[in-house]
Design a protein that fits this description.
The chain is built from 6 helices and 19 strands. With 346 residues, the protein is of the alpha/beta class. The chain has 2 domains: 14-34 and 232-343, no CATH class; 39-225, 3-Layer(aba) Sandwich (Rossmann fold), CATH 3.40.50. The strands form 6 sheets. It has a 7-stranded mixed beta sheet with strand order 2-1-3-4-10-9-8, with helices on one face. Strands 5, 6, 7 and 11 form a 4-stranded antiparallel beta sheet that branches.
């Protein structure tokens, strides 16, 4: 049975009331025009097909790897533009590229013109358009900006993990390992000294698949290099910034705590700190301009809040929380999917 805004008998369902409420509350906000994000992820359908045809091992899944790069950005609440290979990169501060086996001339042109940070995953430049190994060895044309040669690769079984220590923390890499010949000094090495992370100017290349926590830290390192003011978002919370407003979607079954700047203003909806929830999450009160807020709980039934941007140096915005009715977990999951599609396109 498919759930929609209305029931099959054309009577409004839970989603209809929630979208109606959302539209009403959004109409009270002065929303800025959409602007490009400061970070981008290059997603390539050709890469997905290439790795599906020749995965080397069953678990090397392009979409799963792309999602790990995406999560590394999302954990800081950043807006992310999804770009095709060869798209102009002007205006971005960080671009992440999951495995991109076939590197086109337009992609190389966008690399050479870009001054921000670029993070590139393994297997990039490993194939020609004719599915051959490049005569100059992988990463093929990418050697123009990353002077390395991949001379051998290993597809690792599940029971093999590659331990390493980076910045005094222990991590592991899995599934894939490339043997690199280069004069560059690796900035990340395995415990046995094998280099798996290389940098040349603004280009960073990973010769393995790091576990999520290590990938998160590598992305954090690059964001810090670009001067981002970072604030880690709790797991299960999705963030979207639009102008001076930040929208938070809490997909957890329980409230979460957000650390907010003291100048943050709370405008409408529910606020969970200081025991100010009503039983049905229908209450909450506005925080006046002079009120100081060091943290805030986001209700388990809220899908949207708003607060100041982290990086653009704008004036503090207001904080907005969207509250939902008391519904079952299944209804909540379905309505969350509907909110996401609706709200990210308003």
């Amino acid at each position: 049975m498919h759930s929609g805004l209305n029931l099959p008998d054309r009577q409004p369902d839970v989603g209809a009331f929630e979208v109606r409420q959302t539209a009403s509350e959004l109409s009270q906000l002065d929303l800025a025009s959409l602007v490009p994000a400061e970070t981008a992820l290059v997603y390539d359908y050709e890469a997905a097909w290439t790795l599906a045809i020749q995965p080397q091992r069953e678990d090397f899944d392009y979409f799963a790897v792309a999602m790990s790069f995406y999560r590394a950005l999302r954990r800081f609440g950043l807006n992310i533009d999804i770009l095709p290979p060869g798209a102009p990169l002007d205006g971005y501060k960080l671009v992440v590229i999951p495995p991109l086996p076939i590197v086109s001339a337009s992609t190389m042109q966008s690399f050479t013109r870009f001054n921000g940070q670029v993070l590139i995953g393994p297997r990039t430049g490993s194939k020609t358009p004719n599915f051959q190994i490049p005569a100059e060895l992988p990463p093929g044309p990418l050697q123009e900006v990353m002077p390395i040669k991949i001379v051998r690769v290993e597809s690792l079984p599940d029971f093999v993990s590659l331990p390493l220590v980076w910045k005094s923390a222990q991590y592991q890499c899995n599934l894939w390992l490339e043997h690199v010949r280069t004069d560059l000094v690796p900035f990340i090495r395995l415990a046995d000294g094998h280099g798996v992370g290389y940098r040349n100017g603004n280009i960073t290349y990973l010769a393995t698949l790091p576990e999520q926590s290590l990938l998160d830290k590598i992305v954090e390192d690059l964001l810090n290099a670009e001067g981002f003011k970072l604030s880690e978002i709790p797991p299960g919370v999705r963030v979207r910034t639009r102008g001076k407003h930040r929208f938070f979607f809490n997909y957890n079954p329980e409230p979460v705590e957000l650390n907010l700047p003291p100048e943050t203003k709370f405008v409408m909806g529910c606020r969970g700190d200081a025991g100010r929830w009503c039983d049905d999450c229908g209450g909450g009160s506005a925080i006046k301009g002079g009120d100081e807020v060091s943290s805030m709980s986001v209700c388990a039934r809220s899908a949207l809040i708003q607060c100041p941007p982290l990086n653009r140096g704008e004036d503090p915005a207001c904080l907005f929380s969207f509250k939902t009715s008391r519904i079952t977990d299944n209804e909540k999951a379905e309505s969350c999917r509907q909110w996401l599609n609706f709200l990210l396109n308003f």
